[in-house]
Amino acid sequence: xxxIKQPMGxxxxxxxxxxxxxxxxxxxxxxxxxxxxxxxxxxPRGMDKMLVEYTGDVMITNDGATILNKIDISHPAAKMIVxxxxxxxxxxxxxxxxxxxxxxxxxxxAEGLLDQDVHVSTITNGYNIATEKAIEILKELGEKITIDNxxxxxxxxxxxxxxxxxxxxxEKLAKIAVDAVxxxxxxxxxxxxxSKNDIKITIKEGGGLEDSAIVKGLLVxxxxxxxxxxQKIKNAKIAILTNSIEVKKTGIDAxxxxxxxxxxxxxxxxxxxxxxxxIDRITNAxxxxxxxxxxxxETALHFLSKAGVYALKSVSEKEIKKISKVTGxxxxxxxxxxxPSDLGKAELVEERxxxxxxxxxxxxxQDPKAASILVRGGTKQFVETVERALDDAIGVLIAVVKExxxxxxxxxxxxxxxxxxxxxxxxxxxxxxLAVKAFAEALEGVPKAIAENSGLDMIDILxxxxxxxxxxxxKNMGINIKNGKIEDMLKAGVVEPxxxxxxxxxxxxxxxxxxxxxxxxLAGRELAKSEANRGMTRAAxxxx
Length: 544
What we know:
Elements: E1 16-19, H1 20-39, E2 49-52, E3 58-61, H2 64-70, H3 76-91, H4 96-115, H5 120-141, E4 143-144, H6 150-161, H7 170-184, E5 186-188, E6 191-193, E7 199-205, E8 213-215, E9 217-220, E10 232-241, H8 261-284, E11 289-292, H9 298-306, E12 310-312, H10 317-327, E13 331-332, E14 344-354, E15 357-363, E16 371-377, H11 380-403, E17 405-408, H12 412-425, H13 432-443, H14 445-453, H15 458-469, E18 477-480, E19 485-488, H16 489-492, E20 495-497, H17 498-516, E21 520-523, H18 525-543
Parallel strand pairs: 7-16, 10-11, 10-13, 11-12
Antiparallel strand pairs: 1-21, 2-3, 4-17, 5-6, 8-16, 9-15, 10-14, 14-15, 17-20, 18-19
Helix pairs in contact: 1-3, 1-4, 2-3, 3-4, 3-17, 4-13, 4-17, 5-12, 5-13, 5-17, 6-7, 6-11, 7-11, 8-9, 12-13, 14-15
């Protein structure tokens, strides 16, 4: 009897699978779509996106990372492009749109090579060679600066905020960002160290953008623990306690039998005595400001008020650590453990009304290595947009201060790298040459998008930019969107951290190569079912 061979399935019924060119084309398309979503936000005249939450909340922004984090993306390849924006935001704090647009352009150029029957392995190998060479060229284009070069730092901040809602007060906000970064920077052995965690941005509705300010110290979003306490303390000596100021309850269930009024009074007197002992320890140590991570008993608040002490209670652990760093106060567990050497110092601790809330300002610290920025504005959406713009500016300033190297923007750096990469490609043998040239053309997609979003003729700008970069001493030539001319961006003050460009090229290339190397997409049963349901819903909507 003949053996009957039956096909054997390795996946359960209802699952989906895309292989070979189908999988590749599908993934490339998903990546390109994500890039197209935010492409129009690139540049100083980029458009905004309105993001509507399912709750009805509305956010208006042109920040690439924010847009991609908020929108619902289910396609796995598209999620890889979103990861490019997230990595860029974490590493530099800005340039997310540039990175994603570049990734989209790399995928688009790869698709063209696939149509010419260039093998995927050849494309990915060429892209890796091009990435390495592009970073090498980029480092040759960098200009060194120091933290003392405030003019360049201001230009870096302004370049980051141009085209965002904060632009109308860009001079003031750029100065605030630069001052904040300089305050928070520590220098040791010629190496600058600064963290975003040391710069706190607080937003409050009300007032105008011009009311925004920087505090050389800390803003704590808490008011005095008691209205009977002084509102302002000069020459503050600050005690930080992690434990509560109250009489502790016993750890086990216990009952106290009181047989007479005298016993009751003795019990209350003893409790008051224990609290008074804690407050005396605080005041004898010389503290006139107490920051407590936990609660403070009402009787203890009364004693602190009588002693003229300003107190905050229920302050978060995160804030406690910041106050300690800013003022130099040592964090102590219990009030009875406090010593005079544990106290921190500040010129002023004051409660002020901001909008309809009260906040505590800790100012005039000797060497805070931390700064707070208060952002004011008419609406919630506006102050949130300004906060994101300031956050981006601070991110790029930190990158510049740490690395000490800048390059020019407005498409100038991308065009110069593209020019030199094309020359380098001619030295290569084999089909990798085509991939390196495609990489160079993808870099030109950045100035192309800037021109298009600015309402300029994309083809004319690109031709003129290429011609400008073929001349001597032309590495800084970029697009002046105000007059549509090609000008020196270093002289124009359009500068960015070199690390921003470096990270964008690396992230975009890595994600594109990763997507191109996928030749098989296997969807599980649940995913296939959800995709089928989504297709049926769309079909039903089309019939309506």
